[in-house]
Backbone:
């Protein structure tokens, strides 16, 4: 069992190290209002993709905190999207947004996107640079302080 845990940690480290600086995988996803959001539309913005599920306890804690962060960057070229990976039920998504008290726009994930972004659990946060390359990946619980550090770094590029 210990060997498996070490192997998983090494896998996370390898994925994180090798993904930085690579082109972000292309996506076209519907948002909760039916509008299509394409990766290419986000060029020129630092983009935060929070991959989450409706059954994720850490997501329930982090998404409201990240909502406040979104407000802080409202007048800067920063976009936030919460990519739900376990449901496409709009009513369920809107109910959870209200219950969890977050207002980050939600994109409806699909198998292709989950596979391309190597989502093996939630939450996983990708910070995409203005040039659409992967800047940083966070696995599991992440502090707002660390998110801000990298958002500010990539805003300055």
Residues:
């Amino acid at each position: 069992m210990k060997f498996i845990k070490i192997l998983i940690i090494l896998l996370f480290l390898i994925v994180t190290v090798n993904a930085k600086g690579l082109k972000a995988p292309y996506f076209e996803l519907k948002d909760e209002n039916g509008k299509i959001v394409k990766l290419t539309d986000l060029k020129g913005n630092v983009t935060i993709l929070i991959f989450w599920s409706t059954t994720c306890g850490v997501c329930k804690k982090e998404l409201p905190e990240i909502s406040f962060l979104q407000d802080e960057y409202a007048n800067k070229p920063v976009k936030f999207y919460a990519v739900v990976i376990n449901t496409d039920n709009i009513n369920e998504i809107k109910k959870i947004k209200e219950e969890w008290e977050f207002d980050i726009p939600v994109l409806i994930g699909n198998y292709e996107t989950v596979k391309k972004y190597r989502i093996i659990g939630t939450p996983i946060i990708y910070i995409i640079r203005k040039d659409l390359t992967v800047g940083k990946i966070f696995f599991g619980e992440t502090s707002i302080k660390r998110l801000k550090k990298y958002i500010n770094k990539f805003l300055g590029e």
The domain at 2-155 is CATH 3.40.30.10 (Glutaredoxin). Confidence is low (pLDDT under 50) at residues 10-18. The beta strands are 28-30, 36-38, 46-52, 78-84, 106-108, 124-128, 134-139.
